[in-house]
TrEMBL record:
InterPro entries: N-reg_PII, N-reg_PII-like_a/b, N-reg_PII/ATP_PRibTrfase_C
Name used for this protein in its record: P-II family nitrogen regulator
GO cellular component terms attached to this protein's record: cytosol
An annotated GO BP: regulation of nitrogen utilization
Gene3D superfamilies for the chain: 3.30.70.120
Pfam families on file: P-II
GO MF, one annotated term: enzyme regulator activity
Domain of life of the organism encoding this protein: Bacteria
């Protein structure tokens, strides 16, 4: 089991939602508000406007999914959120040891024993 996380532009959320819902057996997504900036070395020359808007609004999305679903989810995030501009965001995966339901403490199906 993996968690796929991504930082994306807020105006791409509707497009991302459609792309994720199109994936068979998609498990669901959690969305967080976030702010951040790109490392200055990655940008090169910055304008005054860029300096004044250093922290831009972003969204962080999080999806817990079986290993086999990681690539289709990652591909959907990239395809639906890319504009070709600096600041489109990043996507990464994190290994999940176990998942337990808060209601009763049971292990959620598909999660490895922990």
């Amino acid at each position: 089991m993996k968690e796929i996380r991504a930082i994306v532009r807020p105006h791409r959320l509707d497009r991302l939602r459609e792309a994720l819902r199109a994936i068979p057996n998609f498990p669901g997504v959690t969305v967080f508000r976030a702010e951040g900036f790109t490392a200055p070395a990655a940008i090169g020359h910055r304008t005054v406007r860029q300096e004044l808007t250093d922290f831009s609004s972003k969204l962080m999305v999080s999806v817990l999914a079986d290993d086999a679903m990681v690539e289709p989810i990652r591909a959907a995030i990239i395809a639906s959120c890319a504009t070709g501009q600096i600041g489109d965001g990043i996507v990464w995966t994190v290994a999940i040891d176990d998942i337990h339901r808060i209601r009763d403490g049971s292990v959620i199906d598909g999660a490895p024993p922990g």
